[in-house]
Structure formats: C-alpha cells, structure tokens
Amino acid sequence: MENLTTDLLVIGAGPGGYVAAIYAKRKGLDVVLVDREAIGGTCLNWGCIPTKALVRSAKFYNEILNSNDLGVEVNDAKIDLAKMIDRKDEITKKLVKGIEYLLDKHGVKVISGNASFKDSKTVEIKGETSYSVKAKDIIIATGSKPKHLPIEGIDLAITSKEILANKKLPKSLTIIGGGIIGMEFAFIYAQLGVSVNVVEFLPRILPGIDKELAMRLIPYAKKQGINIVTNAKVTKIKASKALKTVYYERKDKEETIASELVLEAVGRGPNVEELGLDNTDIDYDKKTGIKVNDSLETNIDDVFAIGDVNNLIQLAHAASHQAFIVVDNILGKNKTFSIQNIPSVIFTSPTIATVGITEEMAKAKELDYSVVKTPFSTNGKALILDAERGYIKLLKDNKTNHLIGAMILGEEAENLIATYTLAITNKLKPEEVYETVFAHPTIQELVHESALGLDKLAIHYIE
Ligand code: NAD
Fold first, then answer.
1. Which of 21, 138, 319, 453 is most buried by its number of CB atoms within 10 A?
2. Tens digit of pLDDT for each residue in 350-395?
3. Are 200 and 224 within one domain?
4. Tens of pLDDT along 140-198?
5. 440 is catalytic
C-alpha cells in the first residue's frame, strides 16, 4: 500500500467531484480524485447525458412522423434503437475522454479504486494499486443509486441504468414511478411508438414540480399514448410467458398491467454504504445521506459532502455548484448553499423547466405576489418552430417588485430558464428585464413579453 498526502482528496468523479477537482487544482491546491467506476459519474455515463441523447433521437423520429406539417414528405421512417444506443454511447465516450484529458492536463492525480474511510482523516483506496491517503480536506461526492421496492418479483424490473443499454425496442413498457426519470422515459419510449404505462403511488405525477405544470403535461402525455395510473401502490411483479405483469392496489382493488418490459424509477438513494463511514464520526443516515451544514461541511471539520450524497437536491448542476462553494470555502471564503434558485428541467415533450418559487409556495408563505401566464402561441418563432404548445408562468413579489419564480412548459424551456435564473438570482425587477432588448424573432422574446405582462403592459397578448 502506497502512502499519499495531499491538500484535497475528492471521492467520486461525477459532476460534483470532477468539477471540485479541476477547480481546486486551478486554484492552486494539490488534488487527488478517486472513483471506483467511471469518470463523469451517473450524469455522464448513465443519467443526464445518455437520456438526453435518446430524447433527441425520439424527438427527431416524432418530427419526421409529423414532417408533413412543415411541407416535407418522408416515407418509411424506421427506428433503429441499437443505433440510437450506439450514438448515445459515442457521445458519452467523447465527453468522458474530454474530462479525463482535462483532469490530466491540469495535473489532478486520478486513482481508480474503491475509497473507504479508516478514520475521519484517513482514506484507503483499493484498486490496482492500493493507497492510504491523508488529506487536509476531503470532499465526499459519491452520488446516488436507484432505490428498489421491497416487493415480490422486483428483479423482473430493470433500472434506468439498464434501460439505457437496451437495444431491442419492446412493444410495451410499464414504468413504476411517475417522477422525473419515469416521465422522461415514458415520453422517449412513447415517441418511439411503444405502448407505455406509468404507475404512480401518489395522486399526481411529478410530485416535486408545480402542480399546475404537471397537470398541464397530462393531456400531452395522453396524446402521445401514455397511460398514467395514479394512486396506485405496486405490490408485486410476476412473469407470464413473454410478458411481465405489474400488480397494484388502487381504491382497495387489485389491478394489473402486463407488458414486455418493466422499468423501476422510484427515486434514488445516497451512496454511503461502502464508504467506511462507521469508522468515522461523520453524521449520516443510510436513507437521507450525509448531513451537512449550509457551508456543505459535515460535522467533522474539513470533511465536506456535495451532490446527491448529501441529498439536498439531486441535480447534476446543483452538485457542480456545490463543488465551487466548497472549494472556495476551503480557500477561506464563507459561502453557503441555497436550493432556492437552482433551475430544474424535465425533458418531457413539451419540456418543463422551473426556477425560484412556485405559486403554491408563494401562497403558503402568504406572499403578496403577482402572476402572469404567457402562451407560446403569442410568439412568432414558436409558430415557426411548430412549438405553439405551452406557456410561461412568471411570479413577482409585489412588495420588493423582484421576480421570484418562473415555470415553463414548452419548447426550448431548458434554454429559456437560464434567462429567468439570471434575473431571479440577481433579484431583477420586471422593468429591468423588459428594458433589455431581446433579438427578434426568437423564443427568448417570451421572456421580455412575460416581464411586460407582470406590469400589465404586454403587447402581444391580453393578460
Ligand atoms: P422521483 O423522486 O422524481 O420520482 C419517484 C416517483 O416514484 C415518485 O413520484 C414516487 O411517488 C413514485 N413511487 C415511489 N414508490 C412507488 C411505488 N411503490 N409505486 C409507484 N410509484 C412509486 O425519483 P426519480 O424519477 O427516480 O429520479 C431520481 C432523481 O434523479 C430525482 O431526484 C431527480 O431530481 C433526478 N433526475 C433529474 C433529472 C433532470 O433534471 N432532468 C432527470 C432524471 C433524474
């Protein structure tokens, strides 16, 4: 076993860990980065990037099916799922190689192996070469893994990681869980012509998202052929010939759905088990992850936890943001993390994107607020893009006149949300947005128009 000492040890090379490693190295720290699987973590290898590659293929196929609307006739469009999967793998490979190159170029020492605490300040890494590492600071960024229901036959269901490798298009798919992962895969597979069912435990899909937005997605899901069953508690899965039958309880009755493939997407839990945390005094819980304060430090000085493993919010960009905060704090700053202005995007069709507070939250906080809804159909570029579906809901606080929340259902929502995030994070007022010039004809003009609408000045629609 080799002994190593370093300024900073980062455990986990996902969008939390690799960003922390590169940023810390660029700021002059000596950095060791360890991962037991792949550089890029879940996000690059089995999460955000691969799913969005499939979203692109599925959407493109759907556009071809509707190409007549744009005056283009295409006959015999066919799906080659294996090719889509290969393309997704190529994109992932390219991005992972890019990160590996950058880590190397910046002089981060990357070790492949399993890291486990021996005590609060010493970590052992077991790999081809084994190391005992002592570091002034340690960042735990080990991410999360799919949760599993403790029910009979759950092994018959596949995970979001496994479905990303599936090259054979099934005729039918049942998804357990109508959360973010469930709904994204529901749209991907439905757009590829698969008969999709979503079985959700709660009375509604997408529980973390503004209710109105989630409800407005349902007609689009139905039109796409997605069958959504809510208030349904899955109790078992059984195999019968080529099909798998999902049993669930709904209104005290047992109901079933049979399909070729079953996907389980019932949330993700923190990766804490193999970290040797019981050899330390680090405060953690197997279900809710490693506990951190506002500065993302654990109860042990100089040991931090970022990303899914601290369970504050399970989003790649939040993990990267937390990485910057922690490295800055290690270097003497006093930054804190707030989940308030973290944008969230769900790649359904149409796409959903949100930032800031929802109308439900504004009501619960008894805020004096104004809200305006701006339809995509009022925007020229939206019509050009054949994207008139959807709307933007924008909120301001009447006392401060600051923008406080934006919710979008519609095309380009993932890009539009960046402008709102900038405005809300910087506490802009509506007039500061509409006194900015937005290029024409663009979807971004909806941002301008929605800010005007909040002050009852909309030009292209009646508020
Ligand atoms: P989730 O928490 O979003 O949804 C899980 C769903 O499963 C919930 O709606 C829950 O009620 C339901 N469920 C739980 N038990 C059930 C049961 N017995 N029967 C039926 N339904 C049941 O979790 P997820 O969709 O697995 O995603 C995990 C995390 O990954 C999320 O926190 C999300 O933020 C993140 N993620 C983000 C993106 C993105 O930003 N685009 C994409 C994918 C995943």
1. 21
2. 999 999 999 999 999 999 999 999 999 999 999 999 999 999 999 9
3. yes
4. 999 999 999 999 999 999 999 999 999 999 999 999 999 999 999 999 999 999 999 99
5. yes
Measured distance CA(65)–CA(61) in Å, rounded:
6
Distance 207 CA to ligand 1 centre (A): 8
Residues of the chain with pLDDT under 50: none
Question: How far is residue 60's CA from residue 435's CA, in Å, rounded to a whole number?
Answer: 36
CA 24 to ligand 1 centroid distance, Å: 32
Copy the structure tokens of residue 85: 């999967």
- DSSP alpha helices (H): ranges in 27-47? 41-46
Separation of 451 CA from ligand 1 center, angstroms? 32
pTM of the model: 0.97
Same domain, 31 and 137: yes
Out of 55, 180, 204, 312, mutate this one to test ligand 1's pocket (max ligand atoms within 8 Å of CB): namely 180
The whole-angstrom separation of Cα 138 and Cα 135 is 6
CATH number at residue 408: 3.30.390.30
User: In this structure, is residue 314 part of a structural domain?
Assistant: yes
Measure 181 CA to ligand 1 centroid, in angstroms. Answer: 6
Active-site position among 148, 317, 440, 448: 440
DSSP 8-state code for residue 312: S
Per-residue pLDDT at 240 = 86
For residue 203, the CA-to-ligand 1 centroid distance in Å is 14
The answer to whether the CB of 145 falls within 8 A of the CB of 269 is yes
Q: What is the pLDDT of residues 32-51, one digit of tens each?
A: 999 999 999 999 999 999 99
Is there a single domain that holds both residue 413 and residue 284?
no
As for ligand 1, residues whose beta carbon falls within 6 Å of it are: 149, 176-182, 184, 199-202, 207, 233-234, 265-268, 314-315, 344-347
Quote the tokens at residue 105.
């170029």
> Which ligand 1 atom minimizes the distance to the CA of 206?
9
**Angle between the 17-26 and 316-330 helix axes, to the nearest 10 degrees?**
30
Do residues 226 and 273 both lie within one domain?
no
> In this predicted structure, what is the pLDDT of residue 288?
97
Range of the domain at 279: 2-146+269-339
Atom 44 (ligand 1) nearest CA: 181
- What is the distance between the alpha carbons of residues 432 and 403, in angstroms, rounded to a whole number? 10
Residue 261 β-bridge partners: 173
The alpha carbon of 302 is separated from its chain's Cα centroid by a whole number of angstroms, namely: 28
Query: Are 238 and 294 part of one and the same domain?
Result: no
DSSP annotation of 290 reads E
| Closest residue to atom 4 of ligand 1, CA basis | 179
